Hints:
Blueprint: E1 3-7, H1 12-28, E2 31-38, H2 44-49, H3 64-77, E3 81-87, H4 90-100, E4 105-109, H5 120-128, E5 133-136
Parallel strand pairs: 1-2, 1-4, 2-3, 4-5
Helix pairs in contact: 4-5
Amino acid sequence: MRNIVVGVDGSTPSWRALSLAMSIARSYNARVLACCVWHTPASLEMAVFAMPVVPVIEEGTDGGELGKKVREELVLAGVEGDFSRREGDISQELEALAESCRADLIVVGRSRHAALHLGGVPRRLLSMGRRPVVVVP
């Protein structure tokens, strides 16, 4: 295992996902590529069902405070890696990042909405079936 992509949006499940990704990376001497995808709903109708991910993100390529905190966590864990910010469909952007770095694994947190159980992003990543996906509660 060389590269692990992890979705981070500032939620508790996403911090758990980052923690697990860093733990796996330490075991395999792999890199962690943390990514926050900003998703803006296309219509008001979608806005009822989809929440924007990470309202704490600041403009700019470094991801603002979230990027800084993720990079600090990577350093503290002694894991090589980085943080990036993307915009678009969350599952497609995480998969695109995983494809570009030839990731061996994608780690994401479970949906914040208990009624969704697995959540839309993990479900779409699993349905793509291109690489293993770990969903962290």
